[in-house]
Amino acid sequence: MKKNAVIPQGFEKGITADFIWKYFEDVDTMIPEKVTQHYNDDSLFRFGNAPAIQGPKEIRKALDNFYQLIESMEHYNTGLWLGDNNAVFEANVHFKIKSGEIVVIPAVSIMRLEKSKIKDFRMVMDASPLFNNH
């Protein structure tokens, strides 16, 4: 373990469950503008093992591309841990793919706030079941 690779506990106090629920309700609408309203200009967004991207414009592009691959999605909460200024949200995500099949994938999101918006978002999920053998 590298001791110099410690990530700060977050950027702002006061993250709430209501903030998390609203964010993921907006994600499930599959309307990128609803999602990107939760980010600042310098926010970071990382999906799976893809490189991190920065800012609402790049996040919107990534969401546009991802949403085109599926019909719908819905997050089902399986756990939420709140810190003073960060959250870890665990969910089973139900995806309806283009064939009409429902694919359920477990996922974990790590969020840190700054200025009441997401400063750093990391989604940990293996999305390969969405694209393998379908």
Describe this structure in words.
The protein has 134 residues and is of the alpha+beta class. Helices cover 23% and strands 43% of the residues. The chain has three helices and six strands. The chain has helices at 17-29, 32-36, 55-67; strands at residues 39-47, 53-54, 70-82, 86-97, 102-114, 117-124. It has a six-stranded mixed β-sheet with strand order 2-1-6-5-4-3, with helices on one face. The longest helix is centred in the first third of the chain and has 13 residues, at 17-29. It is globular and about 40 Å long. The model has no long low-confidence stretch (mean pLDDT 89).
Notable features of this structure?
6-stranded mixed β-sheet, 134 residues
Instruction: Tell me roughly what share of residues is in helical segments.
Output: 10-25%
Q: What is the N-to-C order of secondary-structure elements (H for helix, E for strand)?
A: HHEEHEEEE
Helical element count?
3
Q: Mind describing the biggest β-sheet?
A: 6 strands, mixed
- β-strand percent reads 35-45%
Mean pLDDT: 89
Question: In what order do the strands lie side by side in the largest sheet?
Answer: 2-1-6-5-4-3
